[in-house]
Structure formats: structure tokens, C-alpha cells
Amino acid sequence: MSRIQATFQTLKSNHKKALVPYITAGDPHPKLTVQLMHTLVNTGADMIELGVPFSDPMADGPVIQRASERALAHKVSLRQVLQLVKEFRLQDDKTPIVLMGYANPIEAMGVTKFAALAKDAGVDGVLTVDYPPEECETFTQALAASGVDSIFLLSPTTEPARTDLIVKQATGFLYYVSLKGVTGAANLDIEEVKSRVAEIRTKTDLPIGVGFGVRDAATAKQVAQFADAIVVGSRMVLAIEDSTEQNIFQNVSALMQELRTAIDAS
Known about the structure:
Blueprint: H1 3-13, E1 18-24, H2 30-42, E2 48-51, H3 62-73, H4 78-89, E3 97-101, H5 103-109, H6 111-121, E4 125-128, H7 137-145, E5 149-154, H8 160-169, E6 174-177, H9 190-201, E7 208-211, H10 217-223, E8 229-232, H11 234-241, H12 248-265
Parallel strand pairs: 1-2, 1-8, 2-3, 3-4, 4-5, 5-6, 6-7, 7-8
Helix pairs in contact: 2-4, 2-12, 4-6, 6-7, 10-12
């Protein structure tokens, strides 16, 4: 059983929902990333979504774009991101790590090589925004051969036939994009998101995470009433952006504790 499967199984048996914070690897500096990851786990993260910095993002809003720019200023590459995961694994062999990024760096490295290096580093899942399900069979097969889950996005505009195609290829969990647009774009229509998640559940037994629009603890609490996982990205990255090296861990911890308390209260 994979770390992702085991985590969701344990949470379900304890009647809890997964809190999945997102940070960009290398933001604000590569030397802080691993300690930030441990801080997230120590303050309530069940899984970590680790962004691979990319210069031409399509799904990321301005907050996460700035995080990528800060990381790229330190020349953080895909290979270095994998090294950071490997370093994290020296102390934590339990918490699932999902890489989120774009196809270009993976293609440049080579799909088969990337899958093998991801497994070796301790990566549990990969979410690649711009690999369309119609064209990524080679990629998902390479990940499967290395025991790494393929995480797919579903959005409010995903048509039923495409949902069926995604569900057939996805492993680990599904990530529902809760709004039209980029990360952190707008306030959620909770009832609409709830309805769409219910529709997706008729097609799959995979856990469903919701993200892209969870901006505060109150929203996280609402989403936790029907989702299996709550992904918090832009709000977490903004906490990092607004911090200094002296208070960054304190600020991230405070936000995590606020989110954890709200989700558990649901």
C-alpha cells in the first residue's frame, strides 16, 4: 500500500480529513525548504504538495508565480527539488509528498528517468498541470512502473467524457479545482463545489481533494464537510512571502494550526 493510500485509509478510520498545504520548493530560499516541510507536518499536515518552480505557469495565480520567481532566482531545478525530497525523507518516511508542476522540466529530464528518480527520492505522487489525459499514457505508465501515483486535476468545466478518461488513469486521489481560473482567484460557491464533488464520486472510489480557492480557515471548514482532502496553496505561500527568515516558521505554524483546528471541527 502506498503512503497516499495508507494516509487516506487512516484518516477515514479516524473520521478525519486530510490537510494538504502547498509550498514552492526553494521559496524563499532552498536552505529553508526542508525545515518548512517538517514544520508543516509538525503542525498538522497529512500530506505535502511541493511545487516545482517553473517560469511559464498556466494554472498558478500571482502569489504562487512570485514564489516560483523567488525559487528560480536561486536556480532551483527539478533535480534539486528531488534532492530536497530525499533530504526530507532522512527524518520523515511517513508523510506523502506530491510534486506539482509542469511537463517541460520532466520532458527535458526524460519521463522514464524522472519516474525512477522521483521514486528514489521518496516522491509519492505527481500532478502535472499541462499533461492532458489524452496524451499522457506513457507518462502515467512510467510513474506506475516506479510505484508513483498519477494525480489529475478536475475542474468545473471538465466534461463528463473527459472526467471518465481522467478517472481511468488517476491513482492516489483526484484534485478538484474549486473555481474557474488560477490558484487563489476568487471566493468559492460552496454548494456548487459540493455538488460537483458528489457527481465525481459516482464515477470513482478515489479520495477527492479540493483546492485552488481555500483562502482561510472558515472556507477550509466548509470544504472539509464533503471533501476528503483540503489543499491550501496561495494562502500558505502568502504567509511565507509576508515573513522574514526570523519569523517564517512561527507564521507558517500559526496558519497551519488555525487550518487544522477548523478542519477537525467540521
